[in-house]
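Q: How would the C-alpha cells look for this protein?
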Amino acid sequence: MKSMTGYGYRESVTETMTVSVEIKSYNSRFLDLSVNQPYWLGRLESRLREYASARIQRGKVEVNLRIREKNANLQVTSDPEAARAYMGAVVEIADALGHSGEIPLSLIIAQEGVLKSERLTDPESYWAAVEPVLEAAFADFEASRVAEGKALERDILEMTARIEKVAELVASKVPEMEAMFKENVRTRFAEMLDNQIDEARVLQETASLMVKYTINEELVRLRAHLKSLRKELAENPSPGRKTDFICQEINREVNTIGSKNQMLEIGQSVIEAKDALENVREQLRNIE
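A: Here is the predicted structure in C-alpha cell form.
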C-alpha cells in the first residue's frame, strides 16, 4: 500500500552540467500529472510523462526537471540589414526631435531580429544524463510513499478491528434481543388478558418481531465486507478505489443494524462502528 503523498529529490553534478529532479505528490481522486522542464528541452516532456504515468495510479503529481550547463551550446547569428534598418529609423526619429546625442549600440542590438540565438540540443544525450537522476529521485519518492502507506495501513487495520469487534458484540446480543422481545410480548399479553397467557401466541408474536428486527443477514454481510476490506489491503497494491466502495457497503449494513436496533448496547456499538468506519474512509482518501 502506498500513500498518495510523497516526495523525492536527486541531483547530479558533472564537469559539464548539473541535473536535478524533484517529484512531489498530493491527494487527488485521479492522476493529475504536471511536468516542468527547460523550454529548450520540450521534446523530453513526453518521456517524463510516460515514465511517471506508468508508475503512479492516481494523485496530483509534479515532476520538475532542472538543468544548468557550464558551457551552453548556443549558436548566435546576426542580421546586419535589420540593424541598419533600425538605426536608420532611430536616426530619423532623433533628427525629427532635434536630438543630437549618440545613439547607443545596445538600443539597436535589443531590437527583435538583430541578434538570434539557438540552443543546439541533442535530446538523446540529455535524456542519458536525466534518466539516472530521474530513477534515483523516483526511488526516493516511492520509498516515502511506501513508508507513509504502512503507517496508514496500520491505522486502517486498527479501525477495521474495532468494527469487527462491534460486529461480534452485536451478534452476541441477538439471543438477548429475542428473549427481550418474548418477555415484552408476554408482559403485554398478561396486561391485556389478566395473566391468561397463550404461549403459542407469545411465540408467534415473538417470531414476527424477530423477522422484522432481525440483524443476522446484516451481520453476515458486514463480516463478508470486512473480510473483503482486509483482503484488498493485503493483496492489492493500489486498493484506494475498491476499498472506498467496500466502505460504502459496510456503512450500509451498519446503518441498517442501527435502524433495527432495540437495545441500548447495540445502539452504542453502532456509534462506535460508525466512528471507526469514518476514520477508515478518511485514511483511505490518502492511499493510492
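The chain is about 60% helix and 15% strand.

The first helix runs from residue 45 to 53.

Upvote if useful.
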